[in-house]
Backbone:
């Protein structure tokens, strides 16, 4: 499947050239950041293997690779919370992908929030184990039990 | 240094609790996405080890861990292109961090661009190796040779 993409050339070719030549890590993955096309919020950070990347490009819908389940998954496959990709960007050394998405249905996070990033880390003090996270934009956008059923929601899509 | 943070409890505690208990991977890293506080653009994706995360929290300036150089680095250390963190968020399972930053000086990318994500991947066709990336927002914001000198700029900060 990695044959789908161009071979990696020199650093200059990878950074300044027009060829899509992703650098998959030892596990065959690139990092993918999905932001909300409407407001720029980061919705989630996940991974894509070559097949997930190819399917995302071809379909315009977000596909990922779950490291915990060791499986390819189309976001929203079971939940209906699909992500339509409005733009895909790749970074300088081509080991990270940024997709802007229209998130169908209320949320991207398996906990029921719109974004996975619903807690802020207070700044300005050395963390000492008593650091207290602040919940922000943390209201539940949907009921994960209703959407994902009784299965472990962290294994849900 | 990982002692700095809380121990990880149950999935429920990690996801719904107020304790900062990052999940560092086998290499001791979490993924960090830096977005432009002004417009939400993703500037870069990098990694933090426990010390980089702790220093970022304490100082309010972005510190990272370079996998290629195997070294802690303060963003802008040599270039002056520091990142002041206006907000830090952590995701549901606490293995990814999102920082909103004010990027000092013109750019975050060692190639001279404001963002590392200066190329778009066209959607809607199966990638076949002839995929042509489209340069977007790709004008150079600074001269990397002037800022980083003749050293390999991919090794620069």
Residues:
């Amino acid at each position: 499947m990695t044959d789908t993409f161009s071979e990696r050339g020199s650093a200059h070719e990878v950074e300044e050239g027009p060829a899509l030549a992703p650098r998959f890590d030892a596990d065959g993955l690139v990092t993918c950041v999905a932001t909300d096309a409407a407001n720029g919020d980061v919705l989630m950070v996940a991974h894509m293997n070559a097949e997930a990347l190819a399917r995302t490009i071809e379909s315009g819908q977000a596909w990922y690779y779950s490291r915990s389940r060791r499986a390819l998954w189309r976001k929203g496959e079971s939940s209906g919370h699909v992500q339509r990709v409005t733009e895909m960007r790749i970074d300088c050394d081509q080991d990270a992908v940024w997709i802007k998405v229209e998130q169908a249905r209320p949320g991207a996070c398996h906990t029921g929030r719109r974004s996975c990033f619903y807690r802020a880390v207070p700044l300005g003090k050395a963390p000492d184990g008593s650091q207290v996270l602040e919940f922000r934009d943390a209201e539940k956008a949907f009921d994960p039990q209703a959407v994902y059923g009784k299965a472990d929601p962290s294994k849900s899509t």
